[in-house]
Helix-turn-helix transcriptional regulator
Amino acid sequence: MASDCVSPTESARPDAAAERAPLFRRPRSVAAVPVVFLGLGLYRAWIEIVFVGTFVVFPAATVSARDLFDWTMVVTALGCTLLARRIGPFFDKRWPFVLGSAMLVASTTLMFASCWVASLAAWAGYAAAVAGGFGIALVILTWSELYGCLNPLRVALYYSASIVAGAVVLYVYRGFMLPWLFVMTALLPPLSFWAASRGFAHLPPQERPATAWTRFSVPWKAVLFMAAYAFGYGLMENGMYGGVFGPHSAPGAVLVAVLVFVGVSFQGGRFDFSLIYRFALPLIVAALFLVPVFGGTQNYAAGFCMAAAYTAQSILIMLICANICYRYGVSAIWLFGIERGVRQIFMWLGRVTAAGVGALESFGIGGEVAVSALAVVAVALATAVLLSERDLSSRWGANFLSGGTDSAAMIRKQELVDRCDEIARTYKLSAREEEVLLLLAQRKTVGIIERELLIANGTAKAHVRHIYQKLDIHTRQELFDLLGLDGRETGPQD
């Protein structure tokens, strides 16, 4: 027996009272995140403990095992994409939750076992990588499916809060001795899956993932945007985590998550999501070019900037993809399977490129400068793609494909989204007004709109008034007539 490890010593449906009172009041909105939605942060913490190894050095955690983990995740994610119509949605099935939990617990057990039985390290790392890559793909797609049911503002609020929650878990876990660390780490995946299942249960039935199939071409702009940033991140990754913090507990990542959370909490529907990439762009340029030139890629400032920038872009891509699922009824398993698979491939390519760039030294070219220059090109490409779209509500290069739905209701939803988008362009509605227009078209009252957009009653009514003025209408019935909706099914009126 040998010990070679280094270890440190609801969107919930509102209740009746909430239905009567405005939900968004600035002092109380900060506490408006249902606890179960923080469960996403648990699988983030698991990844950092088991496969990044920032504060536990596992004998089984070799470079090849890490690559096998990544590629297993890629194959599983893309496999789920190909089979999405048969296996999805996940929320009403038991096997993704049970199988995913079992694989991640098994992966945890194998990695920690290599600490106590050195002879296991030769094969335990590879077995743990396969089990972990498979299980982590399932938990990521499960949470993506849940977030694809939420309004973008709630996605931003819950996702940023879960990033902070995951970091807090990691800070606490640093104080555990190795046996307790094993037990507590093994609990993270089942708890994360359980929290996701409770999140689905909190959603009203009509807001849960659609069982009808929507044929949608790949939103290539969104995928390319995140792939470019992932490549730049991969170039820097090997030098970033040699210190105290890992990718999910880094101060830069936590700071960005806190800023987004506070911004959405206190501004609600007035929050400008373009601030995320405007904030991230100078940080990532500093991390990838300016700081390394003067201090090296392992410079703490470079790590801080990169972690902050990449976290901001991760929040943004979650918002983009979740909004496509939310607005158009696209399968989250299909869309996020593509995005996650491509992202991980480009991150791996970045690591491989960074490892091989040392050969440039023999030609008198600085390796770090070359890596930084490559990364800046990738970031510039991603930024150009991002700026080519009008706002988060865009389709990002995708379109509906013919013969793509099994449900007449889904067809009507797609047609309604298209009609609202057309009216928004014709009458020059703002992005927020277009969002309110779509909710009005779905026959939602001002009270429901203010809850979904996290805005005060007066703000919601102001948006409605501005929309009516721009469309030169005066009643909800006139709006339905303009949209071509059957007024007999209007439901509650404001």
Notes: The longest helix spans residues 300-328. Residues 6-31, 487-494 have pLDDT under 50 and may be disordered. Residues 404 and 457 are 38 Å apart (CA to CA). Residues 38-358+368-387 form a domain with the Growth Hormone; Chain: A; fold (CATH 1.20.1250.20).
